[in-house]
Design a protein that fits this description.
- The chain is built from three helices and five strands.
- By secondary structure, it is of the alpha+beta class.
- The strands form two sheets. Strands 3-4-5 form a three-stranded antiparallel sheet, covered by helices on one side. It has a two-stranded antiparallel sheet with strand order 1-2.
- Strand 3 (72-82) and strand 4 (88-99) form a beta hairpin.
- The longest helix has 19 residues, at 2-20.
- The chain starts with a helix and ends with a strand.
Amino acid sequence: MSEHLSDIKALIAPLRAAQYNFEEGAVKAALFALCDGDTVFHHCHPFGDLIGAEAFYDASYAPLLHAVPDLERRDWIVMSGSSEHGDDWVGCAGHYTGTFVAPWLDIAPTGHVVHMRFHEFYRFREGK
């Protein structure tokens, strides 16, 4: 079982690696490779539910990267498991950090380093 859970965590490793120093092309490529076209992203307010990797990237990551062009992701914990329904899950917690230089979500930029905590949960079916 533990080998299977390591394999599930490995599925998001390319995305996490691309987000470490948040190179836009690499993040897009990894996100699009990870998700089916009809993947549903249940995102926080004000984003809501988004369908597909492109919609998620355009609504979420692109504006954040514009506001924090030196954006970096730092994971504190990455864990995986399976539910009683047979779904495979990966959970990540950490923070995004960088210099806040342009408005984001009607928040005025400070020009200072910011840290934004995150908790993300990925459910996998057939490796996606």
